[in-house]
Description:
By secondary structure, the protein is mostly helical. Helices cover 65% and strands 8% of the residues.
Amino acid sequence: MGFLYDTSLAGFIILTLVLGSMAAWATGRACALTWRPLRTLVWFTFLLSLAVRFLSFALYGGTLLSVQHWLVAFVLLLGVSLTGWRVTRTGQMTQQYRWLYEKTSPFSWRLKPGARDVGA
């Protein structure tokens, strides 16, 4: 029994860190590809964290209504889903508007030198 997990470390690693993180990354990517706002991503991640907690309860006998362990799962999954959303959005902006933006890192882009942003 620990702060991060309530049943076993292996169950936490398999469900939350591996399967939950893969689902969170896919959720972030899907929200970015469909141009959905961040509040939608937060809602989907909230639902995903509830599903992960239910699976922990059903498969490993964890506590179903543990706010502490749900919050740990939600924060971890939200971080992964936001990272997936931002990496995908950066790719979108630099691929679809390559005459206007250039990638500066996996998480950001900037206006190309000599280009003028009409949105600002």
